[in-house]
Specification:
Length: about 325
């Protein structure tokens, strides 16, 4: 993990390129190496020979495994609110990457952190790293390097996991007749965002928005079982369409009656609002996967519909009528 660019705190140094000089002020700020040692050195797994602090990490890949790599960048006021607690920012930004590893059925191993800061705020860094490492410890993933630079607040994480050869979950394996399954109740991510924007700071949906729970255990359990898998970041309809397109342009029919009614996390929403949140909301970071028709649905998950050969996504309403759905979800641009 290293520093890049001209840091804002270089204003107290006579030469920004020389981090060995003492500032003229009475108290010296931490340089980038001190920041790394103080906030980003953490216990690591057996596969890490050399972690943060050098020009690169030395890692030992698990024998006989394939590596899965993913990366996401989170921008302030685009992917997380500026007034979100730094511990939640750290947790949430890592969760997004762990969810991608889960969608591939990967066992989390290592991650790199690229952190862009408008200024050095040690209280913010302490809380950010605390939240990030709280989730890292739960997942058993090690921070092995990265960089720190100056600019508008942004967090970019590259995560790596491992999977046995031939058992990675992919988007392109769905088949006609497969069950379409969800790893839990969707909609809390978007509802939590809406409530946050309305000034609320507490409640089940807010809690999910602040700290989504990536399903890496479920992803690994689906190895050799699921025919296709994706994590729900953009909404059920949008992400399901990715699976259908990758699997040869298939379609799907969803069952409105299969949607959980009045789940606690969506309390207070009308039936129409709940349906919209569950089908179109993003930021859930639950797994959406397809299973062969004879395969039992894992505990805690539910079947929402079936893959078919007719392109497009349709919804069978509770009265039996079937209508086409417009695919909508989170847009990055």
């Amino acid at each position: 993990m290293r520093s890049a660019g001209k840091p804002r705190y270089a204003s107290v140094m006579t030469d920004p390129a020389d981090f060995s000089q003492s500032p003229p002020q009475e108290a010296a700020p931490l340089d980038e190496f001190s920041l790394i040692r103080r906030y980003f050195h953490h216990r690591q797994g057996d596969t890490v020979v050399l972690g943060p602090g050098d020009d690169g990490a030395l890692l030992v890949p698990p024998a006989g495994q394939q590596l899965v790599m993913t990366q996401d960048t989170s921008l302030v006021d685009r992917h997380f609110p500026a007034d979100m607690a730094p511990a939640d920012v750290g947790y949430r930004c890592l969760a997004v990457n762990l969810s991608d590893l889960a969608a591939m059925g990967a066992n989390p191993l290592w991650f790199l952190l690229s952190l862009t800061l408008p200024e050095v705020d040690e209280d913010w860094l302490a809380e950010f790293s605390r939240g990030m490492f709280e989730l890292a410890d739960q997942a058993g993933i090690s921070l092995v390097g990265g960089d720190i630079t100056r600019g508008p607040l942004a967090v970019s994480i590259q995560a790596t996991g491992s999977v046995p050869p031939g058992l990675a979950l992919r988007r392109d394996g769905a088949r006609v007749g497969d069950q379409i399954c969800l790893g839990g109740v969707t909609g809390a991510g978007l509802l939590g965002l809406e409530q946050w924007q309305a000034g609320q700071r507490h409640g089940p949906a807010i809690g999910h928005f602040r700290r989504p729970r990536p399903q890496w255990e479920l992803g690994m359990a689906l190895r050799g079982q699921a025919s296709a898998c994706i994590d729900i970041s953009d909404g059920v309809l949008a992400d399901l369409s990715h699976i259908l397109q990758a699997s040869g342009g298939l379609g799907a029919c969803l069952d409105e009656a299969a949607l959980p009614e009045d789940p606690p996390v969506l309390a207070g929403c009308s039936a129409d609002k709940q349906r919209a949140l569950q089908l179109q909301g993003g930021d859930d970071y639950l797994l959406l996967f397809t299973l062969p028709a004879a395969q039992p649905v894992p505990r805690g998950c539910y079947c929402l519909g079936q893959v078919d050969a007719q392109p497009g996504i349709r919804l069978r309403q509770r009265n039996g009528a079937v209508g086409a759905l417009t695919v909508a979800g989170w847009q990055h641009f």
